[in-house]
Fold this sequence. Notes:
Layout: E1 3-9, H1 17-28, E2 34-39, H2 44-47, E3 53-55, H3 58-61, E4 83-86, E5 92-95, H4 98-107, E6 110-117, H5 119-130, E7 135-139, H6 155-176, E8 179-184, H7 191-200, E9 204-206, H8 214-224, E10 232-237, E11 249-250, E12 261-262, H9 265-275, E13 282-286, H10 298-317, E14 322-327, E15 330-335, H11 336-339, H12 351-358
Parallel strand pairs: 1-2, 1-6, 6-7, 7-14, 8-10, 8-13, 9-10
Antiparallel strand pairs: 2-3, 4-5, 11-12, 14-15
Helix pairs in contact: 1-10, 6-7, 7-12
Amino acid sequence: MKKRVLVATGGGDCPGLNAVIRGIVKRASHERDWEILGSYQAFNGVLREPMELMVLDEHKVSGIHVKGGTIIGTTNKGGPFAWPIKEKDGTWSSADRSDEMLRRLQYQNIEAVINIGGDGSQAISQKLFEKGLNIIGVPKTIDNDLAGTDFTFGFQTAVEIATDAVDKLVTTAESHNRIFILEVMGRDAGWIALHSSVAGGAEVCLIPEIPYKVESVIERIHERIINDRGVLIIVIAEGAMPVGGEAAAEESDEIGYAHKHLGGAASRLKKELKDAGCESDIRVTILGHLQRGGIPNAYDRVLATQFGVKAFEMVLEGNFGQMVAYKHPNIVGLPIKKVISSYNRIGPDDQLVKTARGIGINLGD
Length: 365
C-alpha cells in the first residue's frame, strides 16, 4: 500500500497555489511508494460527510501552474478547531472536531499533511502538530506578512497588479488634473502599498506601520496641485490609520469568519482631505480582490514550485512541525511555532522605507 500525503489550501486564494500543488505532486512522482491526496476547501474536505478528497497525480496537475486560484478550493471560515454548527433555534456556535479529524486521517492511511496557508492556517498547523499530526506548513499570502520568510508567493503578483493600477491612474489623473487615492490590500502590513508606490511613482504612500497626519498629506497636495493644475497619486493600505485613530473596519457577520472586514481607508481619507479644506477633484479606486486573482507571474510560479518540492522533501526527511521558508538564496525549514510568534511588519528603518523617503515619497508622518 502506498504512503499518503494530504494537501490542503486554506485562507484567502492567492496566485501560485496551483504551482505549489504541482510542485508537490511532481516531486512525489519520483517516489514509487507515495500518493498525494487533496482535501477540498482546506480541512473541510476531511470533516464533511462523505469526505471530499481527490487523488492528485501528474495528469491532474498538468499545466495548472499557470492558473490562479486552487484546484482543491480554499476557505477562511471555520476549521477543525472551530467548526460552525447551527443550533435548533437558528443561532450559530462552534465545535472542536480536531480529534475526529485526526481519526479520519488515520482511517485514510494519511501519514503526513502539507498545509498551504497564511498566519491563521499555520496557527492551525501548529495546534495539529501539538496533537501529534505529522504536518508541514507552506507560507501563502499576498500580504507578505508571515515572519521567517523573505517573501511569500503571491506577493509579487499582487504588487504587479497594484503597480499596473498606479500606472493607469496616472494617465487619467493627468487628463483631468485629479487626485487619485488607490486602496490596496495588506491587512496590518503595508508591503503591497510600499512596493507599488515605489514601483509606480506615487507621491504619497500611507501604511499601517506609520500612522498618517492629514496635514502632511495636504502639504504635499499643495506642492503638487497649483492653480487647479497637477496630479497626485496616493496609495493607501487598507489597514492604514490616522494618528490616534484605528483602521477602517467592521465586524464580519459571516459564520466562521475570524477576521474583521477591512476596507474604507481610501474613502475615509478623501473625507478627511475635504474636511481639511482640499478643493481638488479627488477620486477613489479600490482594487480589492483583483489583487488575488489572475495568472501568477514568473517569480511567484518559481517560488511556489520551490516551496512545493521542498515541502515534500521535508515529509521524506520527517521534518514535521516546520514551515517552508525562503531565506535568500536558500529554501529552508523553520519551526512553525517560531514563525507564528511574530508578525512581518515594515520596520521604521526598513531599506525600502529609506528608499521611498529618498525619492521623495510622502509617508504621511
